[in-house]
Amino acid sequence: MRNFTLVLLNYLSNTLSRIENQTGGPPVNSSQTLKARREAAVATGVATRGIYAVRADNAELWDADGKRYIDFAAGIAVNNTGHRHPKVMAAVAAQSESFTHTCFHVAPYESYIALAERLNDATPGDFAKKTMLVTTGAEAVENAVKMARAHTGRSGVIAFSGAFHGRTLMGMALCGKVNPYKKAFGAMPPEVVHVPFPNEFHGITVQDSLNVLENMLRSSIDPERVAAMIIEPVQGEGGFNIAQPEFLRALRNICDEHGIVLIADEVQTGIARTGKLFAFEHAGVAADLVTMAKGLAGGFPLSAVTGRAEIVDAAPAGGIGGTYAGNPLAVAAANAVLEVIEEEDLCARADEIGDAIKARLNDIASRQGMEPIGDVRGVGAMIAFEMVTDRATNAPNPALTQAIIAEAEARGLIILPCGTRANAVRLLPPLTTPAPILAEALDLLEASIESAVNAQAAIAAE
């Protein structure tokens, strides 16, 4: 019945578009007119693609012109349970019948407490935990740093090259990528230092990174001034680079030695994306604080900080929170998301999807003429492939990366770039993607890669 409804809606949308086109000129809300309106009304710094969405369902999305796409961006790892999962939408609808906002600081509600209890139980670590809810990933990171500083009485923070932790002032300082996140915004907050993230594909081993960190703690920043160390277990914007289990375990030991709070930024990796509810589980390591957002509420704005009770409680009353923090509709969605993950075993499904994607990409990369695919990597359904000029040097090929993304979009597949060198393609399908749509998407991806690679080769040969 659901599929029949989608077909009917698609037919009606296309029919309306044809009728509008017969009047001469673009329809009032076509992609063309929306693009012009966006350029006139919206800040240029808010970068957008050319896909103007009108509706979406699970792993599919339709634009203002009636074109269908398979969505392998998922709102940047937000729609892990797919667009408009029925259980999530039902939970939000039910909550909207009671109230939509009271401000938790003014009139708290049980659903917030229940979600906190769930996250306290679900995050790694056999110790007493507490949770606070906010709205965005950047807010979660900011509050985690505030908690660490309040708990330790220190101010320094260690982050990593290639990191992305948000666009707020502290978030920018923590980011390990200048363009576009730091460019043009002036001085960053002090006492934030960066260590190279291990990237063996580009010659940085785990030991290399640890050597720099240990030397930094001896020569550049007093460990007794460091409040926190923050790391993504798999970098998002940085290129889907994976922190090896031995690296995370070593960081845990260093933090324990110096009394530093270890913060796991699971904003993109969390909520079943990597085949575990949280990616730190792959290393058998528990961070002191965990930040999460994106997939937590199935498309509704919500984030959280969960961690050791004594650290979370270090902030004074009223020092953390916000007017919209823990919005009732988003909280209802998050409680439903956690139920869907368990009921549909989406952690296992993430592994199945990721295995299928990596198998296809490795097959493509092994063919003659596909040497520009330098690396295929990922955990669970968080997969990237990196484009290079040649495998001897692994020099980045950002032009080819953009060509693949554009070709995929033209064919009806939404994928995203990433990496400090702008030469990696990341794939973030909903964990609820049906097998036939996954197969269709991989065919589109393969055709897009082959077309872009062959076109670049032809230009080089001229």
TrEMBL record:
CDD domains: OAT_like
Alphabetized UniProt keyword annotations: Aminotransferase, Pyridoxal phosphate, Transferase
Tree of life domain: Bacteria
Keyword Kinase among UniProt keywords: no
EC identifiers of the protein: 2.6.1.19
Family matches, as InterPro entries: 4NH2But_aminotransferase_bac, Aminotrans_3, Aminotrans_3_PPA_site, Class-III_PLP-dep_AT, PyrdxlP-dep_Trfase, PyrdxlP-dep_Trfase_major, PyrdxlP-dep_Trfase_small
A Gene Ontology molecular function term of the record: 4-aminobutyrate:2-oxoglutarate transaminase activity
Names of required cofactors: pyridoxal 5'-phosphate
The protein's enzyme class: transferase
Family: Belongs to the class-III pyridoxal-phosphate-dependent aminotransferase family.
PANTHER family on file: AMINOTRANSFERASE CLASS III
NCBIfam families the record matches: GABAtrnsam (TIGR00700)
Protein name in the entry: 4-aminobutyrate--2-oxoglutarate transaminase
UniProt organism field: Falsiruegeria litorea
Classification of source organism: Bacteria, Pseudomonadati, Pseudomonadota, Alphaproteobacteria, Rhodobacterales
